Every structure is written in structure tokens, then in C-alpha cells.
Amino acid sequence: MDERGATASLRPPLTGWTVISLRPSGGHAALRRAARRHGAQLLPMSPLALRPCPAETTLGPALMAARVVFTSPAAVRFAAAQAPLRARPEQIWLAVGAGTAAALRRHGITARYCAERMDSEGLLSLPALADLARCEVGLITAPDGRELLADALRQRARRLLVAHVYRREPRRIGAAAWQRLRAQTGPLALAVSSGQALQALLEQCPLDLRTTLRGAVALVASARLELAAQQAGFATRVRAASARPNAMLSALAAYRPDSAFR
User: Fold this and answer.
1) How far is CA 185 from CA 17, 171, 212, in A?
2) d(Cα 213, Cα 20) in Å, to the nearest integer?
3) pLDDT in tens for each of the 262 residues of the chain?
4) Rounded Cα–Cα distance for residues 211 and 156 (Å)
């Protein structure tokens, strides 16, 4: 191998790539670190902001249920700001994905999750949520999200106690972010961990950038999001094992044009 080949082999796998982050405002740091480790640049474009929902009357009962389910790290954060998170010995706490389980672990709680499929369907496959006819289930979440999970738990459980501890609000993406997208010359990836965020981005996208945006590799965290990206016009999709930043960037690093979902 000559000197140029040796130098190229030492480059991080995503050198030259730009990853567009749709994480809520203020939530890009972990994805930025993961992108940097793989050699990519991050372009933050937050179409949504997270706001707290007062849940004084619903959060307490939900946290006392036999099964306690958290749908996101944000649900953990906003719940903990309103009430202490303490697991009782007879309870089982569950999380949608490793990131949510990690957020609960920081509060001293071990939560079960499905490592093979970190979405609503994966969580519902766990034995702890199979026989709920005599159980109350507490669901700590945001409105307008994870409806499949809520509907399934409502059908299975003796009673479902829902606590909406935060909400998602549309946020205007500034002109500077769109201008940065116009200036991109290298390959693009769009990290999609929320269908609502994807829709909010597309609703704001200027006409002259729609082709550029849909030409990006849609880096998705589940089969549901892969379908949403396909329906939105993204021809190239790569599915990651989870929405955790390193999982998404590792999936992109392993991407080859002939192996992407079409």
C-alpha cells in the first residue's frame, strides 16, 4: 500500500459526510459526538421543541402501577422533574429502548427492554407485558406518540394509567440552517428517530431544497420509520438497530449502496 492508500485507510469511515439531526432543540450533543467519532459533520435542524406538561394528578398513580412503562429518555427527564422515581420491589419497570433504560438507570432503576427490537412492537413482545388482565399499567409518555403501544396496553391491561409529562411543539428552523444545507457538497444522511419530526421538517423545507433533502440517506431507527421515510419520498434508507446515536452512525458507516433498503 502506498502512502496515499495508508492515509486513506486511517480516515474515519464517514469522513466527508454530513448528518442532519432532527433531535429536539438542545438535544443534539450525543449525536454530534457520535458523528465526530465516525468522521462526519452534524447539521442540527430541530423542527420540534419539547415542553413540560403538568401531570400532578396522573403521574403519581401511573408510577404506582404494577407495570411502569416509559417511552423515551425525555419521558424520564420530564417525569423526574415532577416526582421522585422510585421502584417498589413488586413493580416491573419497562423502557422503549436502551436509551430510555439508561435514563432510568441514572435514577437507580433497572428497566426491562427488548434489545432485539427497540420499538413499541419489541416492548410488547416482552413476557412482562403478556398477561396483564389483573394488572394496572402506568404509561409515562407524550401525547400524539406511541399510539400503537397505548392501544395495545389498553386492550391487555386491567387498567391503563397514562401520564403525559411533556409535549412536542413545532419549532421554526432558522434560515441559517437551510443555508448550510444549500452549501453542502458531500454525501448527506438524515437521522430519523421520530416520524413527527420528519413530517415537521418536510412541512418547513423550502421548495428549492426538497430534492436535496430527499436525496439524503434516510437513517431510520425502526421498520415504522423506514416506511414513513419511504412514503415521504426517500429512495435510500438504512435501518439502525436503535435510535441511540452510536447505533445510527455505526449503521451508516456500514452502509453500502447495494445493501440499502429500496
Assistant:
1) 9, 26, 10
2) 10
3) 455 544 445 678 899 999 999 998 888 999 999 999 999 999 999 999 999 999 989 999 999 999 999 999 999 999 999 999 999 999 999 999 888 999 999 999 999 999 888 788 889 999 999 999 999 999 999 997 667 899 999 999 999 999 999 999 999 999 999 999 999 999 999 999 888 899 999 999 999 999 999 999 999 988 889 999 999 999 999 999 888 899 899 999 998 664 444 3
4) 44
